[in-house]
Known about the structure:
Helix content is 49%, strand content 2%. It is mainly α. The strands form two sheets. Strands 1-4 form a two-stranded antiparallel sheet. Helix 2 (45-56) runs antiparallel to helix 5 (108-132), helix 7 (189-206) runs antiparallel to helix 8 and helix 8 runs antiparallel to helix 9. It is globular and about 65 Å long. The chain starts with a helix and ends in a 19-residue tail after the last helix. The mean pLDDT is 84.
Amino acid sequence: xxxxxxxxxxxxxxxxxxxxxxxxxxxxxxxxxxxxxxxxxxxxxxxxxxxxxxxxxxxxxxxxxxxxxxxxxxxxxxxxxxxxxxxxxxxxxxxxxxxxxxxxxxxxxxxxxxxxxxxxxxxxxxxxxxxxxxxxxxxxxxxxxxxxxxxxxxxxxxxxxxxxxxxxxxxxxxxxxxxxxxxxxxxxxxxxxxxxxxxxxxxxxxxxxxxxxxxxxxxxxxxxxxxxxxxxxxxxxxxxxxxxxxxxxxxxxxxxxxxxxxxxxxxxxxxxxxxxxxxxxxxxxxxxxxxxxxxxxxxxxxxxxxxxxxxxxxxxxxxxxxxxxxxxxxxxxxxxxxxxxxxxxx
Length: 346
């Protein structure tokens, strides 16, 4: 009898402990109301707009710089093709490597372009999944197509930059939900280009109805078709050399842009510096000087070497200039080499 009482007592305590543990679990379980996650996001147009705008923030990373003068990221690329130089030193050791075409694996610019592109692509993948999974009626169809088209374009754009800089790269088309989904094999150059072609085509379909251009600086129908033509032209030539079919596709796409009559060449180079998001400018980096300061806005004026340098920051010799060899390739009478049209000597 005593043994039975002990057994019942033990069972009772275990049951009580289970109830307590269950209560603790319920008490500790959180159901956050303000934390943003994919399940609680993409409920309306404002959320979609904010998500897509977040991708645009990566586009101007090429204007980032270190603290040294003349160290903007884009200058790394200008040194590599041999047509740009600084009258003084290259600013950083990493830029010296670019100028000599002896680039180390740990070069900060090489890492920076890679990191920026894949952060943007990860965002694109997440936004695409979020928008395509929205409940019907939560956003107007035309707005849904516009924002989705912009995102497909931006993913293709960043992959276009990656494949031209690095060759074979990991091709990731879904958002990361598990760390096991981060170690991805390299895809062939052709596979990457085919995906870019597909993304541009998808963006073109989604953005068939919007205007060819607008002054907001967002991706437009004209942006998509112009960049797609450039992608096709690249695929036609080196390194894929797909030839006539792709040259024809590029021509057909570019002709649509031309026939739209939405764009026109500027009459003067002054317009290139003063007109925003119209005329000759199909798509450009949007950078508000008051919000995203950059020394290039005031300290860089193009001048041909070895003429006297012209720069608001003359002590540092300006950020970058073309080589005299490149400057001499312009034919006589070319408006670009007339004083203060495109280049400055005083």
